[in-house]
Design brief:
This protein is mainly α. It is 52% helix and 8% strand. It has helices spanning 12-24, 29-38, 44-49, 73-86, 107-118, 127-141, 144-151, 155-162, 182-192, 197-206, 212-217, 241-252, 274-287, 295-318, 323-330, 334-346, 370-381, 386-393, 397-409, 426-433; strands spanning 55-56, 61-63, 68-70, 223-224, 229-232, 235-238, 350-353, 357-360, 384-385, 413-416, 421-424.
Length: 434
């Protein structure tokens, strides 16, 4: 059997091409399949059998029968877009043909990926290569046990095919154009610290949405393992399967004479008060590269993630969004919707225009580049009109007229007599020739 590292490797240049392909084709099944193989490490058969109910959009995980696989932000957005496309088809599987609106045969997956990658000159890369690239990156990013788990590798497969991809080797397929959000970073922190006291506290705070004080004072009689709930003064909270397993393991490890508190100091085996619990959690967050160690602010930022996804999906489909429409989509007040739009603008994902709200940032010409954009359009078409400039810059007719007038006065453009159009001036053409 060939070693995994003998397969086709994905270079930085290859990765850039693949990202461009994925970003420009969000409504194609091939894009979904490539995302799942390359960014989640799924095999052809796992992708083919994947069902919508196995995708946890809220927690950003694939809940497979043998493992949970984290979903990064760009892949989560792509799956959300594809779900909207497939709604109404009545198919429980995600691999649906847009042409027939039916579940496709497994042989079609390799073909559609091959056809898509051939179009960008990467015909030699297949689904197995994409999956291997994910596995090798996972072995660099996580400890080998967790990497094996999320990749679905057996110990024998790891030893024979991937063990040499230790920390001494250069990672393959570096992350290109990847947006590491606080949600993704926090998810990695939670996974890496499952077996520690601070990890359990972190899970209770972020996965069960307990406050730090509630976490520090939590006792075992407040945890109902049968119902998978935890009770506080604010009411009952449902526990996730992972957190329930962690709590069961922690309780089983306790000695009969130890305090009945869930969180105990690892050394003294005594309860940790609010101050110590808070400092311990914040120290871990600080070391993990999150944008803030303020738990309340971090929870708020994470709660905004699905709202941001919804807005971005709408803009991709419709071209733009304004405050009123965002409020309608999100079911929030206009002020709350505007705060989401501003956050997306601050992250460089959306840009506000003077005419019709927010657009994808890459589709909007910044004000400082307006003149260059007009010059390029005039050079390309031979002339430009006020309406064309207003449409290109997403601005009003008044702003477009003012810009053209100023460019005429400075000698860059000249007006074509008898027409409401402008062309490059002789002065500008001479400068271009030089």
């Amino acid at each position: 059997m060939a070693n995994a590292t003998d397969e086709k490797r994905i270079s930085l240049a290859d990765a850039e091409k693949i990202w461009k392909l994925l970003d420009s084709n969000p409504y194609e099944l091939s894009t979904v399949v490539i995302h799942l193989a390359w960014r989640c490490g799924l095999s052809t058969s796992t992708i083919w059998t994947l069902k919508w109910r196995e995708i946890d959009f809220e927690k950003a995980f694939l809940r497979l029968s043998d493992r949970d696989v984290p979903i990064e932000q760009k892949t989560l957005r792509q799956l959300s877009i594809w779900k909207n496309v497939c709604d109404g088809y009545g198919c429980e599987h995600i691999t649906v043909s847009l042409k027939t609106k039916k579940y496709i045969v497994i042989q079609s997956l390799s073909r559609i990926v091959r056809d898509a990658l051939s179009g960008i000159g990467l015909a030699s890369i297949n689904i197995k290569d994409l999956r291997n690239d994910f596995i090798e990156r996972a072995l660099k990013q996580y400890d080998w046990e967790y990497a094996m788990k999320i990749c679905g590798l057996t110990t024998s497969t790891y030893k024979t095919e991937y063990a040499r991809m230790g920390s001494h080797e250069r990672p393959i397929g570096p992350r290109v154009n990847e947006e590491t959000s606080d949600m993704e970073c926090l998810r990695q922190v939670l996974e890496k610290n499952k077996g520690s006291t601070v990890g359990l506290a972190l899970w209770l705070v972020f996965d069960a949405d307990l406050r730090i004080g509630e976490t520090a004072s939590l006792q075992w009689d407040q945890v109902d393992f049968a119902k998978r709930t935890v009770s506080t003064e604010r009411g009952e909270t449902i526990l996730s399967e992972q957190l329930t397993e962690m709590l069961e393991k922690e309780k089983a490890s306790r000695l009969p004479d130890e305090p009945a508190y869930v969180i105990l100091s690892p050394k003294s085996r005594k309860p940790m008060d609010f101050a110590r619990t808070s400092v311990t959690i914040k120290n871990l967050l600080m070391k993990s590269g999150l944008s803030t160690t303020d738990v309340k602010a971090l929870k708020s930022a994470i709660a905004q993630e699905p709202l941001k996804h919804a807005v971005m999906d709408f803009v991709r489909k419709n071209g733009s969004v304004n405050g009123a429409k965002a409020s309608e989509i999100l079911g929030t007040t206009k002020a709350s919707a505007l705060s989401i739009l501003k956050a997306l603008s601050d992250e460089g994902k959306l840009a506000k225009t003077r005419k019709d709200g927010w657009h994808l940032s890459e589709e909007v010409v910044s004000v400082e580049n307006w003149r260059n954009a007009v010059i390029e359009l005039a050079r390309k078409q031979g002339c430009v009109t006020r309406g064309e400039v207003a449409e290109m810059l997403h601005t009003g007719n008044y702003s477009a007229r003012s810009l053209l007038r100023n460019m005429r006065q400075e000698g860059t453009l000249k007006q074509i007599h008898g027409k409401g159009a402008y062309e490059l001036s002789d002065k500008r053409l001479n400068e271009d020739e030089k």
